[in-house]
Amino acid sequence: MAEDTAHFAGEEGGQASGHVSPAVAYEAAKLGIWTFLATEVLLFGGLFTAYIVFRLKFPEMFHKDFVHLNRLLGAANTVVLITSSLTVALAIASIRKGKQQLLKLFLSLTILLAGVFLVIKYFEWTEKFAHGLFPGTDIFFSLYFMMTGLHGLHVLGGMLVLGAMLFLAGRGRFSESYHTPVEISGLYWHFVDLVWIYLFPLLYLIG
Amino acid sequence: MEKGRGAGYGVYVAVFAALLVLTGATVAVSYIDLGLWNVAVALLIASVKVSLVALFFMHLKHEGGLVWTFALVPVLFLVLIIAGTLSDTLFR
Amino acid sequence: MTETTANGLAVPENGRSRGYLDEKGFRSWALTLDHKRIGVLYLYTTLFFFLLGGIFALLIRIKLMYPGQAIFSDQTYNVLFTLHGSVMIFLFIIPGIPSGLGNFLIPLLIGARDVAFPRLNLASYWIFVAGILVILGSLFRPMDTGWTFYTPYSAKTGANIAFLSFGIFLVGMSSILTGLNFIVTVHKLRAPGMTWHRLPLFIWGMYATSIIQVVATPVVGITFLLLAMERLFGVGFFDPAKGGDPLLFQHFFWFYSHPVVYVMILPAMGVISEVIPVFSRKPIFGYRAIAYSSLAIAFLGFLVWGHHMFVSGMSKTASIIFSFLTFFVAVPTAVKVFNWIATMYKGSITFESPMLYALTFIFLFIIGGLTGMFLGALATDVHLHDTYFIVAHFHYTMMGGTVMGLLAGLHYWWPKMTGRMLSEKMARWGWLLTFIGFNLTFLVQFYLGFKGMPRRWAEYPPQYQFLNIVSTVGSWILAGGILVMFSNFIRGLFRGDPAPANPWKGLTLEWRTASPPPTENFETVPVVTDWPYGYAKRKPADDG
Questions:
Q1: Which residues from chain A sit within 8 angstroms of residue C190, using beta carbons?
Q2: 36-75 in chain B: CB under 8 A from chain A
């Protein structure tokens, strides 16, 4: 009765021992998050499609309305998110070198910056409401509130995920050799940044 | 397990600096009236920023064809839905 | 004491003693990480909704026997066809084969111990259940828009659309996560030696299906989100009064809902590709053609959604483009049909129930597919749109196609999943009644539609009545067939003969382990050295 576990260097050998090897698990997790990001591209993509359709249909509305958006706050939020992308990348770079304290520091900074983003967004939105500008006001503001709203929900979700990473890091779950969840959380976070990088000019800059 | 990719923090900080500069540029350009070119320039700068984030922060530069495929295929379908919808709305 | 197969794979003599079904108790099912149990949970759930949706259909058909008679109100009729469509599509046919059979079989077929993300798999199921509960909860006010939920009516009706939208969002999320899981599983968890071109064709079909699920479903998610936002916050993308466009809803909706019909059919085609070679005792003809045609269908399916909108007010330019592109999607489908037939040619064909259903699939799907050509052609579609021709077309493809494929798969893999055999006699009676009942119900509807009978109307002019009566009687025979079939299933769960590991003598990996399989699927992970269709070719007549 042969104990038939062949050694394969490639992908197919992942379960030779009956468990998925760490290398395969890491690659699988990475493919998994990129697949999820693909779904997010299509989710936001519907809104971008609507933006294009209506911008071509009502250029004057966009021209008239976008001045109500606070360009500087939008720019500030852009800087906030870009910085948070930096900090999460640094978090991962740190744990790749086994540096636990730096991991926790950079994760905390990322979460903090995400919070700042949401606070700025809160002030922007309440200012709109105070001026009588609501999602139902016209199509431009429908787009503005829908796109920044959906994005904001994703920021919130990211905060929760990164918070979970921070918690696990505090329990010592990550190391130089194992930090897959942090990496895939980071990839998600960068995607949230990517969406904003397009949202910002489309809504705030090119009326 | 993990090859020590990215010698360290330096690359990330450099990319960050570039992103800040580009953000400043796009905001500055938005105050100048270039007509339709505003749109082109803004989208171009945004695309460069997205590329930087994707290549360096998301490590696409070091990934193989499979990950690149997963990253690019959804963009193709996004183009498809935009094109198909516009083939209607632009020609009514 | 265990026997050993030629490549050292141990097959326990008494497979059921360590089978995946052994552990009992609610928690062992509700919190299972075993893909086989999750598949079984999905099968129970989706088959329940198949029966529920069927009851709605029977009620619809009763009303349609007697136009002008108040069996129930027209509004009730509207609710019934909305529920029939919504339940069948979102709660049965989309998850049916992928989440049910797919979950059970994919790791087995590729020689893996489980899917890539077992906990995500469990979460997918409970998200599905949550979506079901929300959808059902939304129904306490009548849902009367039709399953397509077109604006402006869906934005204005009194039904709980926002609530329902959330439910559909959850069900869609489940679909996305399942597809994601399958894609990564196929890429990363194949057994040693299982190259892409040694994969069973069911896997190719499921892989293509998963790509569609991942790419298309988010769009329906945003569609329903926007519909809810219109109702709740006055967001005006679909509202003409605000400059919005009702057709934008249709573009978004059909960008998902057309590819989703390929989510429905590709897994069923995968089942057929497994069953035909086994019951023809012949290698599948054109393996690569069938494999790549699945990918082609998945891609081409994204190019044609506008053919649902030819009479909606869409631009002529778009209509012409979409009609032109629609014809291409028939090509890879035809490739499969030709290859299945070529597989059977000069094979040693036997007609056990899986094969009966597989042959039925081919026959009925050809009819469904060919009638699609009339609909893809712009000029004829203008005449046929929103008539019973459409209803017949999609029932031939979805029921004559997908459901027959599901039934073929259920009959084929029943021994593996349950460790018991079904009654072949009951299976054949069930098949016969189903086949006759199905055709009686739906064949006449092509003619009715061609003659102008509209769909979704509770009343119709008297000249259509005779054929409507025929169709309703057909629905009763169909219901009878399904009853016989499900009785066989129930009997099979408790009183079926114990199944051997490989009752059909198949060559795919699932047959190399016990019926039912142990929790870890294989005693030792198999090493694959050949493709799974190496059935002995028919020998020349001199073999005595």
A1: 11-12, 14
A2: 38-39, 42-43, 45-46, 49-50, 53-54, 56-58, 66-67, 70-71, 73-75
Token digits for B7?
């010698």
pLDDT score for C537: 60
| β-bridge partners, A109 | none
Domain at A21-205, CATH homologous superfamily: Cytochrome c oxidase, subunit III, four-helix bundle (1.20.120.80)
Parse chain A into domains and list their residue ranges: 21-205
Identify the architecture of domain C2-512 in CATH: Up-down Bundle (1.20)
Instruction: Report which of C204, C291, C219 is spatially closest to residue C254, judged by C-alpha positions.
Output: C219
pLDDT tens digits, residue range C369-412?
999 999 999 999 999 999 999 999 999 999 999 999 999 999 99
Look up residue C539 and give its DSSP letter: P
Q: Return all residues near B16 (Cβ < 8 A) that are at least 6 apart.
A: A82, A83, A85, A86
| Cα dihedral across residues C43, C44, C46, C50: positive or negative | positive
Return the residue matching tokens 């002529």. C316
Q: Does residue A14 register a pLDDT over 70? A: no
- Inform me whether the pLDDT recorded for C8 exceeds 60: no
| Chain A residues near residue C184 by CB distance under 8 angstroms | 28, 31-32, 35
> How far does Cα A50 stand from its chain's mean position?
21
CA A99, CA A176: separation in Å to the nearest integer? 8
- The string of pLDDT tens digits covering residues C455-502 is 999 989 999 999 999 999 999 999 999 999 999 999 999 999 999 999
Residue C14 CB contacts under 8 Å (≥ 6 apart), including other chains:
none
Could you tell me how many residues make up chain B?
Answer: 92
> In C389-407, which positions are buried (b, 16+ CB within 10 angstroms) versus exposed (e)?
bbbbbbbbbbbbbbbbbbb
Q: Token pair 């891609």 is at which residue?
A: C299
The torsion of the CA quartet C338, C343, C348, C351, rounded to 10 degrees, works out to -60
Does C318 touch chain B if contact means CB atoms closer than 8 Å?
Answer: yes
pTM of the model: 0.94
Q: How far apart are CA A151 and CA A80, in angstroms?
A: 14
Distance of residue C231 Cα from the nearest chain A Cα, in angstroms? 10
Among the listed residues C332, C172, C330, C165, the one whose alpha carbon sits nearest the alpha carbon of residue C260: C172
Taking the C-alpha atoms of residue B74 and residue B72, their distance in angstroms, rounded to an integer, is: 6
Dihedral of alpha carbons C258, C261, C266, C272, sign: negative
Question: In whole angstroms, what separates CA C325 from the centre of its chain?
Answer: 24
- What distance in Å separates the CA atoms of residue C62 and residue C469, rounded to the nearest whole number? 9
Q: How many CB atoms lie within 10 A of CB A59?
A: 12
> Which residue of C177, C315, C525 is the best one to mutate when testing the A interface, meaning the one whose CB has the most A CBs within 10 A?
C525
What are the tokens at A168? 């696990």
How many angstroms separate the Cα of A163 from the Cα of each of A109, A149, A157, C123?
11, 21, 10, 20
d(CA C325, CA B84): 11
Which tokens belong to C319? 């209509």
- What is the DSSP secondary-structure string of C321-390? HHHHHHGGGHHHHHHHHHHHHHHHTT------HHHHHHHHHHHHHHHHHHHHHHHHSHHHHHHHTTBHHH
Q: Answer yes or no: are the C-beta atoms of C163 and C137 closer than 8 Å.
A: yes
Asked if C295 reaches chain B (Cβ–Cβ under 8 Å), the answer is: no
Residues of A within 8 A of C191 (CB-CB) are 12, 15
- What is the DSSP secondary-structure string of A133-189? --TTT-HHHHHHHHHHHHHHHHHHHHHHHHHHHHHHHHTT---SS--HHHHHHHHHH
